[in-house]
């Protein structure tokens, strides 16, 4: 095995897992490197943040996933740099040589030049983020119960979500359902249903990548849940006391950021050109220009692979990119011609707002309401990695649907409750 060509995959997300699986029967050894020991089903991360699910419901250990694929070694660690000339990646205390390198490290939060907002407005990219947001949400209701001042109580019961894309819309709907249904009759000094949820979007409509008719349907469903949707508004300032939205200050102790992402440090490791969002510009074959042995996939890269436009930052795009990189490496190992340029196949976009409310865009077919909601649930159950995750998530959803109750409302993590601010 040690004499076989070495493929190093950085990132155990959708793209990295698809690439490793695509090399199952290839004459090579594979090292799958990640900072975490698990694969995360990120589309359902917001449900951990809003107490629908627990982290283990949407995460699977990487070693468990590849225990029967003998040519894959899983390695826990973080990359600090890449030396393309020597074909080595630098880890904290060692170096790892490669013959082929696949980078799929995803994206990070982007505060558009206001990184100082991060402590007051966490984003949602990992399990730690989700647990932090869950803690803040649940602590806000606890603080409202103990507050002796009505203005202070209202600030604790006001939740601002910045960004009206799928993540922001799903977060807003889930928080509204938690307040209106999940916490019924659990507090004595106030009614949780009086909580104010504000969704802020800089453009003129939510879900701007969806057709206007579906954006309007989503906004109508949010309004039915009591969510205030503020479009064509930008956040001017933000701190632990609230946010300046379009020149108007909204007092809120809980703000969640869902407005933008930027590429991982991969471009800095490689010393290559990026787009405005910090993603690596790759060729039509997902390779770094001038480096045929290095592939960059998923949210880490930008490639005009979808009708002449960049492939979207969705799980299917990452999976297809990982599978393509594996095909290209198999061809190179076998001495065959490289596959044709990467082409992203878009199967549709879905976003859920709440119970029996969702939107789905399949190109010529657009679905909304209950049918879209059932489609959304079916698709997400099907795309979960393990059978255990599918059964667990389905059981939790059925329980929540029948009882309106959330089963993961533990307040964990550092930080004490302080009325009047964090």
Descriptive report:
The protein is an alpha/beta fold. The protein has 2 domains: 137 residues, FAD/NAD(P)-binding domain (3-Layer(bba) Sandwich), CATH 3.50.50; 201 residues, FAD/NAD(P)-binding domain (3-Layer(bba) Sandwich). The protein contains 11 helices and 25 strands. Strand 7 and strand 8 form a beta hairpin. The longest helix has 20 residues. The model has no long low-confidence stretch (mean pLDDT 94).
Kindly summarize this structure in a few lines.
With 422 residues, the protein is of the alpha/beta class.
Mean of residue pLDDT values: 94
Give the CATH topology of the largest domain. Answer: FAD/NAD(P)-binding domain
Give the class-level CATH name of the largest domain: Alpha Beta
Class per helix and strand makeup: alpha/beta
Task: For the record, give the distance between the C-alpha atoms at the N and C termini, rounded to a whole number.
Answer: 54 Å
Q: Main β-sheet, in a few words? A: 6 strands, mixed
Q: Which bin fits the share of residues in helices?
A: 25-40%
Percent of residues in beta strands: 15-25%
The CATH architecture of the largest domain would be 3-Layer(bba) Sandwich
Shape: elongated
Got a strand count? 25
In the residues, how many domains can be counted? 2
Physical arrangement of strands within the biggest beta sheet:
5-2-1-9-21-20
Determine the number of helices (DSSP H or I, runs of at least 4 residues): 11
């Amino acid at each position: 095995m040690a004499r076989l060509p070495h493929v190093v995959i950085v990132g155990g997300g959708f793209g990295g897992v698809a690439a490793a699986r695509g090399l199952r029967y290839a004459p090579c050894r594979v090292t799958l490197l990640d900072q975490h020991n698990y694969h995360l089903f990120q589309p359902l991360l917001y449900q951990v943040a809003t107490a629908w699910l627990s982290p283990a419901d949407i995460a699977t250990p990487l070693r468990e996933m590849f225990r029967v694929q003998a040519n894959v070694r899983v390695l826990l660690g973080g990359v600090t740099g890449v030396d393309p000339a020597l074909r080595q990646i630098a880890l904290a205390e060692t170096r790892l040589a490669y013959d082929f390198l696949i980078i799929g490290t995803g994206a990070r939060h982007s505060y558009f030049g206001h990184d100082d907002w991060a402590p007051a407005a966490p984003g949602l990219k990992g399990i730690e983020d989700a647990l932090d947001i869950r803690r803040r949400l649940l602590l806000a209701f606890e603080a409202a119960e103990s507050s002796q001042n009505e203005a202070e109580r209202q600030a604790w019961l006001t939740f601002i979500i910045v960004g009206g894309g799928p993540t922001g819309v799903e977060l807003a709907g889930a928080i509204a359902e938690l307040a209106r249904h999940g916490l019924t009759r659990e507090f004595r000094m106030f009614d949780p249903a009086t909580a104010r949820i504000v969704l802020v979007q800089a453009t003129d409509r939510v879900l701007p990548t969806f057709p206007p008719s579906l954006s309007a349907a989503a906004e109508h469903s949010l309004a039915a849940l009591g969510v205030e949707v503020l479009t064509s508004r930008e956040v001017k300032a933000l701190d632990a006391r609230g946010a300046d939205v379009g020149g108007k200050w909204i007092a809120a102790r809980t703000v969640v950021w869902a407005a933008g992402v930027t590429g991982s440090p991969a471009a800095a490791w490689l010393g290559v050109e990026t787009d405005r969002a910090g993603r690596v510009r790759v060729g039509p074959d997902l390779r770094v220009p001038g480096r045929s042995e290095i592939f960059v996939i998923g949210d880490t890269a930008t490639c005009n692979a979808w009708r002449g436009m960049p492939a979207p930052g969705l799980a299917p795009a990452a999976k297809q990119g990982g599978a393509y990189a594996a095909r290209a490496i198999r061809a190179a190992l076998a001495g065959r011609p490289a596959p044709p340029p990467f082409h992203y196949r878009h199967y549709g976009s879905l976003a859920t707002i709440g119970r029996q409310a969702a939107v789905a865009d399949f190109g010529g077919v657009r679905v909304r309401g209950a049918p879209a909601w059932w489609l959304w649930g079916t698709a997400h159950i099907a795309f979960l990695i393990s059978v255990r995750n599918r059964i667990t998530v389905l059981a939790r959803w059925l329980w929540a649907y029948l009882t309106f109750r959330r089963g993961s409302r533990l307040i964990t993590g550092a930080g004490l409750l302080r009325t009047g601010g964090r």
